[in-house]
């Protein structure tokens, strides 16, 4: 399973790959009010010449700041949107031209939108999916039983979707996307707003799915832990362009990102000094230390525990947007626009 794709901006080296994008663009026309009766028209390049390939069975993280073009890419891969230019194929199919044919090969989960029927019990939503995809009865029963078991949905099948918590609904959506045995699963923020237990169940299920069925997974998320636990390869998109394609460790190295160690002491002390970390700031008995994301926190934790009156300690992972901003010399304002 490859751990890196083509160099950002270059055409895919393997046009026969399961997913292949070659110079794909998506341009939207936006009208902005500039006066009482005047509107200004301008073009927004949501995706600007992206090229990459994904082999069958890969689990790839597709990450970037809000407004970078992640969801637009996913919508083009599913056929919801038509590219403004370039070439795109999924399993040899042009999504925008053969959307119905492609539907049987893909599963999609949008974290902030549900594909389930709001007023129906979860079980009835699955029955409708059974009919829509014309899934053979034996296959449907087998897949449903497997999803119910692994995603812990047994007690929820007769509950109307509108009464489910966000975590329960998300697990229900993932099951619905997999009942027809898709070859590829697109996940757009699948763990957004979930509690720790729900996130763990979803991640474990996806690992098992990829290992046992060889399902290709393209995952967009702001949660680095999703990427670390599931994906061997990560792609970064920013301002509609592919900025990085490789291993997660390489991304941290390129962005020189740091973890933040939050140390709670029994009392206020002088700034903590231990090898491998630097002091950032103190708030009473709480101190903040920084260490490189590529380094293990264990030696630092051991050194702090041995020399200081430690009460509690936690590790904060680096923010994706901060990593990207540091990599490419820009920052983002509150509206998400780049400031260079």
From TrEMBL:
<dbReference type="InterPro" id="IPR003439">
    <property type="entry name" value="ABC_transporter-like_ATP-bd"/>
</dbReference>
<feature type="domain" description="ABC transporter">
    <location>
        <begin position="19"/>
        <end position="264"/>
    </location>
</feature>
<dbReference type="GO" id="GO:0005524">
    <property type="term" value="F:ATP binding"/>
</dbReference>
<keyword id="KW-0813">Transport</keyword>
<keyword id="KW-0067">ATP-binding</keyword>
<dbReference type="InterPro" id="IPR003593">
    <property type="entry name" value="AAA+_ATPase"/>
</dbReference>
<dbReference type="InterPro" id="IPR027417">
    <property type="entry name" value="P-loop_NTPase"/>
</dbReference>
<dbReference type="InterPro" id="IPR050763">
    <property type="entry name" value="ABC_transporter_ATP-binding"/>
</dbReference>
<keyword id="KW-0046">Antibiotic resistance</keyword>
<protein>
    <submittedName>
        <fullName>ATP-binding cassette domain-containing protein</fullName>
    </submittedName>
</protein>
<dbReference type="Pfam" id="PF00005">
    <property type="entry name" value="ABC_tran"/>
</dbReference>
<keyword id="KW-0547">Nucleotide-binding</keyword>
């Amino acid at each position: 399973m490859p751990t890196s794709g083509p160099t950002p901006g270059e055409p895919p080296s393997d046009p026969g790959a399961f997913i292949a994008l070659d110079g794909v663009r998506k341009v939207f026309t936006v009208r902005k009010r500039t006066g009482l009766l005047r509107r200004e028209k301008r073009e927004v390049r949501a995706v600007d010449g992206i090229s990459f390939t994904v082999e069958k069975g890969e689990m790839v993280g597709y990450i970037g700041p809000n407004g970078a073009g992640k969801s637009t890419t996913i919508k083009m891969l599913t056929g919801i949107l038509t590219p403004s230019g370039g070439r795109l194929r999924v399993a040899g199919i042009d999504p925008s031209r053969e959307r119905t044919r492609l539907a049987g090969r893909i599963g999609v989960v949008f974290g902030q939108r549900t594909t389930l029927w709001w007023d129906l019990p979860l079980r009835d939503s699955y029955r409708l999916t059974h009919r829509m995809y014309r899934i053979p009865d034996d296959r449907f029963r087998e897949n449903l039983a497997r999803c119910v078991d692994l995603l812990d949905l047994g007690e929820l099948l007769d509950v109307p979707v509108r009464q489910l918590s966000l975590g329960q609904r998300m697990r229900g959506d993932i099951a619905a996307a997999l009942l027809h045995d898709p070859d590829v699963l697109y996940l757009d923020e699948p763990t957004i707003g979930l509690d720790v237990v729900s996130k763990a169940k979803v991640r474990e299920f996806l690992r098992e799915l990829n290992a046992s069925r060889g399902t290709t997974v393209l995952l967009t998320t702001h949660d680095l832990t999703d990427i670390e636990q599931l994906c061997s390869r990560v792609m970064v998109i920013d301002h509609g362009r592919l900025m990085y394609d490789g291993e997660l460790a390489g991304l941290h190295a390129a962005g020189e990102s740091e973890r933040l160690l939050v140390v709670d002491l029994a009392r206020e002390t002088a700034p903590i000094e231990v090898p491998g970390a630097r002091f950032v700031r103190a708030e009473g008995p709480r101190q903040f230390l920084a260490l490189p994301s590529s380094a293990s926190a264990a030696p630092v934790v051991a050194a702090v525990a041995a020399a200081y009156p430690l009460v509690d300690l936690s590790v904060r992972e680096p923010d994706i947007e901060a990593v990207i901003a540091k990599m490419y010399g820009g920052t983002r304002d509150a509206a998400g626009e780049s400031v260079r």
